[in-house]
Amino acid sequence: MKSSNTQGKLLTGARQTMLAWVKVIKIFDELPDAYKSTVSHLLGDIQEFPYTIFAPPVSGSRSNPAEKLILWFDETLYILEEKEQKIELIGYPNKMMGHLEVGNVLLYSWIGVSGITTAGEVAASTITYNAATHRHIQPFIEKVRFLPAKKDKVKSKGQEFDYLAPLDFKFFNFARTSLKGKEKVITSVWQPEISYSVFPLFKQAFKRLITPAHLTILTDQEIIFIEDDHRSIEMRGKRYGGIWRYIPRNSILAIDATEKKDNLLNLSVRVKPDTSTIPSPIMAKQAAVWQSEWN
To answer: 73, exposed or middle or buried, with CB in 10 Å at 0-12, 13-18, 19+?
Structure first.
């Protein structure tokens, strides 16, 4: 039987984990006191409280670990953060967002947005959270990644990605679950990890990573980049988690391919309205296929 001290430590550890979970705020009175004045001024006298979550700091975050309050109101994603005893409010109108990033490695997860804010400034924000509470983040992803419904259109069943199953089953599943609504897959390009062996040390082989494995999907409504996180630990030749970037086609300004060493190209997508650039290093052969479909 475990001692009471051991049980207490286990409960304390579980409690500490739960304190990092995202919490849904259902009514105004549930808001942390520090945010009430700013939210009240933002919402005015609306009758229905908007979908709102409180995201506590995540231990070990790779970005700013500060807590955040996030809400969706008037087709705008609002992010509130307390800085130097003041509440900083940033609003991203949905029509003015450039792209959406979603990532996770084990329990560490994040979403990132960029675009023109309600103040008319170019900005980018990242929200970190515990993956166990991703369901509370998903409604924001659905709102930001809204794709208009098209009549008389058959939803893709993901069979376009069957070729991936024997190559990389993780990316095969990622691809199938990344489609939304009735968007049509035009083409996809799979790029395995690119790395080079370096001089062995003490009979142990080392390699230099050039680019992690990634998949580019072109649909009739968006471009989807899915890739391994190069910061994740490789186990048995595979990396856990991944990063997804969703770019609406009507946000794309240009697609450029610049030459790199060793038959590599850097495929860059410039998006509006903030003109940010999203790079994706790939082999020259894959780039030719991708660009031919896009053009």
So the answer is: middle
